[in-house]
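Researcher: I'd like a structural prediction for the single chain below. Treat it as a standalone chain; there are no partners to consider.
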Amino acid sequence: MFLNLGFKSVTMDDIAHEMGISKKTIYAHYANKTQLVEDTTMHLFCSISEGIDSICSLKKNPIEELYEIKKFAMLHLKDEKSSPQYQLQKYYPKIHRILRQKHFEVMQDCVVDNVQRGIEQGIYRENLNIDFVSRIYFFGVTSIKDHTLFPNELFPTTALMDDYLEYHLRGIITPVGREILNNIINSNHE
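Model: Treating it as a single chain, here is the predicted structure.
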């Protein structure tokens, strides 16, 4: 409900009604909505992180790996119709800061490993500043979720994520990597 309707829009009454329980039952476990939002966002973060870790543990081709991670994240974030990142930042800034830092740490490790393997396999350019690439990738992934910069009516989420991933990869791949990327893009269009 938070992802689809927004953190601010969803009330404790809405949650109780959706779950078929009383609001009193929710308050038996959570002192307030802020605690529920924190637990919910951390649970979702942990679920997505574990899924990404399991994709990374397969040690696939690094380009394929990034597409698998994107597909997995999109499935779990359900296209984020309500701009939850913006609402979390506005109404729950402390939770947003903590979540953003955790997101950065997890993503940093994953992307650094991905870039290092891509360089070793000759599909990413060997002269890359890995720390810069990993940070700019994080910044891009988080910034394209800002619906004030990328309004959903002009930039549907799935297309935007595809465009950003292709943009990122085209900046770091070698000619061998370009063949792999083009094959993935062509197979996704079929």
